[in-house]
């Protein structure tokens, strides 16, 4: 078994091997044939009119991959960006792994996409050189044209057919960064105009001839099933066509979403449930189990030195508990998928972060082979890890099978989305620090107790990497401490679990960076100076299977602090707090938050963020991701999912609040120039936002917040 990150890396590497030698027909315009296009690989097609179609092998969910990834191809091929069309790939032979998550989309496709563009560039140059009877080395490319040594000029469209007959070069030279014309420049999001004008097609926008709609009545209790029901009232609702039993509950089929929802509500009044074994599950009981697990057996994730011995001999012992709740993804676009059945085949439309796995599971549900199910990947109105799951798409296939035919669009409402989410689990943290006689931090232990997300993705099996996966953000603590122990104590819970934006790193870094501030305060040291001293002058440091460049982490911390004016005098009730992290040893982020607390009300005024993510492909996209990540993290300060009698207490945005526009702080972003390969930015800003703010709260009030969400009256 592998961890989530290992899985993403393995599948991405497998996909990278398919770059050269594949052929993908361009999606034709009305009235044109695909055979006129030059399509040297799975990512690219050039038409005779000079337009280029670039196929993106990842899902767009607001992170900007439908802009960043085409830029990599266009840069190497020297395309005219105004003549680029972008389409999303479909899971199948050409794209065997379209998995989108873990902030890996750019890093895993950067080289393959560049190679695809470079190969096409050399083929076009060779075609032009043959026509002009000159050496290819004397030809160059520029904005969709090949230029010859004597002023000759031919457009890519004019060369497309000739280039298509040439062999694929194996090692086409790649550009140097100094020669980039598109990469590194601010580029508006490709889908921006279509999104703001309402022309973009998200999953909920899919409409097919004869389409019906469905809403599923599910038991509020985890795993519950309908015991008895009377569908007469549901069928009496105007527009309702049928009620069918599916594995997840009762599906109401109608000619509109509204009718399906109304019919489902009518059906609910007549349905009794077998609630099952989870009916007694509660947050209170789970917390008691997690607290007991803090002192019981656990699996080591990292152990260096003899922390127990050092703690026992410490001149000063510090200890604290931190608590993080269940969280929902709360995507603006709720789960949905549309399925159409035909003889021996089917077609689906949906927004999915795991299109290949969704295809496999839906096809199995329908008794088909994956290649018999065509999956159209729509834009996603919020993913955050939720759409890595395939529960909603598999359910849509089940509904279509039970109802017969299609197309049928299954739509979840907000309550469905909150109650039946693949929630991120609650965790409880116990941290200890031992201070030696010289006043130095000599030992550090971090015990994490809670349900294991990884089991939800391994068929319930315990993976060898479970401890390191669940302690990600804790076991890779980057500070130089002589004795370190980080472990994970699993606590069983019946709740389906899923990855959240920033995964386990969010709660683990929250606890780690807040407790580190506690240690600094107890020693009378400045939190910034304390961190810089602990980072030291080291270079690349290994943490088990991971490693991080401490120099890069130290740099972002220094820059964020300097730009925020760390140490400056603030008004009464204001405070500065900071936090940093090396995300998977790839992306380095530090944030300084400025807050005020007036009459117990917290306001985050500004977040200054410094990041090092290697080469920046699109600065506009990077800034959007940093701002969005900080907003996502700040939302978690006030939101939680709690359980009573096997069901969630929270059912919508009214009791699961997300950050409102008026509460969004000013975000100042500083990017560290780097020649390293690009890494991800979708998740790294999230984990450090929470501890930066809570450390600032302490600076402003002298009160420590060790539990998320912040409760009324706590500050």
Lay out the secondary structure:
Elements: H1 4-16, E1 38-41, E2 44-46, E3 52-56, H2 65-77, E4 84-88, H3 105-132, E5 140-142, E6 145-147, E7 153-155, H4 156-164, H5 192-196, E8 212-217, E9 225-228, H6 232-236, E10 240-246, E11 249-254, H7 257-268, E12 272-274, H8 283-293, E13 299-304, H9 307-312, E14 316-324, E15 336-342, E16 345-350, H10 355-365, E17 373-377, H11 391-403, E18 408-411, H12 414-419, E19 427-435, E20 441-450, H13 466-470, E21 483-490, H14 505-522, H15 527-535, E22 540-543, E23 546-549, H16 550-564, E24 574-583, E25 587-598, E26 601-612, H17 619-635, E27 643-644, E28 647-648, E29 666-671, H18 685-701
Parallel strand pairs: 3-4, 8-18, 16-17, 20-21, 26-29
Antiparallel strand pairs: 1-2, 2-3, 5-6, 6-7, 8-11, 9-12, 10-11, 13-21, 14-19, 15-16, 15-18, 19-20, 22-23, 24-25, 25-26, 27-28
Report the uncertain regions.
1-26, 30-34
CATH class label of the largest domain: Alpha Beta
Tell me the structural class.
alpha+beta
**Can you tell me the CATH topology of the largest domain?**
Aldehyde Oxidoreductase, domain 4
Specify the biggest β-sheet: 7 strands, mixed
Overall form: globular
Q: Any idea what the CATH superfamily of the largest domain is called?
A: Aldehyde oxidase/xanthine dehydrogenase, molybdopterin binding domain
Mean pLDDT, as a whole number? 93
Helix content: 25-40%
* Fraction in beta strands: 15-25%
Going across the major beta sheet, what is the strand order? Answer: 10-11-8-18-15-16-17
Cα gyration radius (Å): 27 Å
How many alpha or pi helices? 18
Intertermini distance:
44 Å
């Amino acid at each position: 078994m592998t961890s989530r990150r290992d899985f993403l890396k393995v599948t991405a590497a497998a996909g990278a091997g398919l770059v050269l030698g594949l052929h993908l027909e361009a999606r034709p315009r009305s009235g044109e044939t695909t055979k006129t296009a030059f399509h040297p690989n799975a990512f690219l097609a050039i038409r005779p009119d000079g337009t280029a179609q670039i196929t993106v092998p990842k899902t767009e969910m607001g992170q900007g991959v439908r802009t960043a990834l085409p830029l990599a191809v266009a840069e190497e091929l020297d395309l005219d960006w105004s003549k680029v069309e972008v389409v999303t790939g479909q899971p199948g032979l050409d794209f065997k792994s379209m998995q989108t998550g873990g902030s890996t989309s750019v890093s895993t496709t950067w080289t393959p996409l560049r190679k695809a563009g470079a190969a096409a560039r050399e083929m076009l140059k060779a075609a032009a050189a043959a026509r002009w009877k000159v050496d290819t080395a004397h030809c160059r490319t520029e904005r969709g044209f090949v230029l010859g040594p004597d002023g000759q000029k031919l457009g890519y469209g004019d060369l497309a057919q000739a280039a298509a007959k040439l062999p694929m070069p194996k090692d086409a030279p790649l550009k140097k960064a100094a020669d980039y014309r598109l990469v590194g420049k601010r580029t508006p999001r490709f889908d921006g105009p279509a999104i703001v004008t309402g022309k973009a097609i998200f999953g909920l926008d899919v409409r097919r001839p004869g389409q019906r709609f469905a809403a599923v009545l599910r038991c509020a209790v985890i795993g519950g099933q309908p015991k008895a029901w009377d569908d007469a009232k549901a069928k009496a609702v105007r527009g309702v066509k049928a009620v069918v039993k599916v594995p997840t509950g009762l599906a109401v089929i109608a000619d509109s979403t509204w009718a399906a929802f109304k019919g489902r509500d009518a059906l609910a009044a007549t349905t009794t449930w077998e609630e099952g074994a989870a009916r007694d599950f509660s947050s209170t009981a789970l917390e008691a189990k997690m607290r007991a697990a803090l002192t019981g057996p656990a699996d080591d994730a990292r152990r260096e030195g003899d922390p127990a011995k050092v703690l026992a001999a410490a001149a000063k012992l510090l200890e604290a508990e931190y608590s993080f709740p269940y969280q929902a993804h709360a995507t603006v676009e709720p789960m949905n998928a549309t399925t159409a059945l035909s003889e021996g085949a089917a077609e689906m439309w949906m927004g999915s972060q795991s299109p290949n796995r969704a295809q496999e599971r839906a096809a199995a549900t329908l008794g088909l082979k994956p290649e018999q199910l065509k999956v159209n990947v729509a834009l996603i109105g919020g993913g955050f890890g939720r759409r890595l799951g395939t529960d909603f798409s598999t359910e849509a296939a089940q509904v279509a099978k039970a109802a017969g035919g299609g197309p049928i669009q299954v739509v979840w409402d907000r309550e469905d989305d909150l109650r039946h989410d693949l929630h991120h689990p609650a965790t409880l943290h116990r941290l200890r620090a031992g201070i030696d006689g010289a006043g130095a931090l000599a030992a550090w232990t971090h015990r994490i107790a809670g349900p294991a997300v990884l089991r939800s993705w391994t068929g319930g099996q315990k993976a060898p990497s479970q401890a390191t996966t669940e302690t990600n953000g804790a076991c890779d603590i980057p500070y130089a401490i002589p004795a370190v122990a980080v472990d994970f104590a699993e606590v069983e819970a019946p709740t389906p679990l899923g990855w959240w934006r920033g995964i386990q790193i969010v709660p683990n870094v929250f606890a780690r960076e807040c407790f580190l501030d506690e240690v600094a305060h107890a020693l009378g040291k400045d939190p910034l100076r304390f961190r810089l001293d602990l980072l030291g002058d080291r270079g690349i440091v290994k943490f088990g299977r991971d490693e991080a460049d401490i120099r890069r982490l130290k740099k972002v911390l220094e820059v964020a602090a300097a730009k925020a004016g760390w140490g400056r005098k603030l008004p009464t009730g204001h405070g500065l707090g900071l936090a940093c992290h090396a995300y998977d040893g790839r992306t380095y982020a530090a944030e300084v938050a400025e807050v005020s607390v007036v009459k117990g009300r917290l306001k985050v005024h500004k977040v200054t963020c410094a990041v090092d993510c290697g080469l920046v492909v699109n600065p506009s996209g990077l800034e959007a991701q940093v701002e969005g990540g900080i907003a996502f993290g700040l939302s978690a300060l006030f939101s939680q999912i709690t359980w009573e009698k096997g069901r969630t207490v929270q059912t919508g945005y009214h009791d699961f609040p997300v950050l409102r526009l008026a509460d969004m702080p000013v975000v100042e972003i500083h990017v560290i120039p780097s020649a390293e390969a690009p890494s991800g930015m979708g998740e790294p800003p999230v984990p450090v936002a929470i501890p930066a703010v809570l450390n600032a709260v302490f600076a402003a009030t002298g009160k420590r917040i060790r539990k998320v969400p912040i409760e009324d009256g706590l500050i």
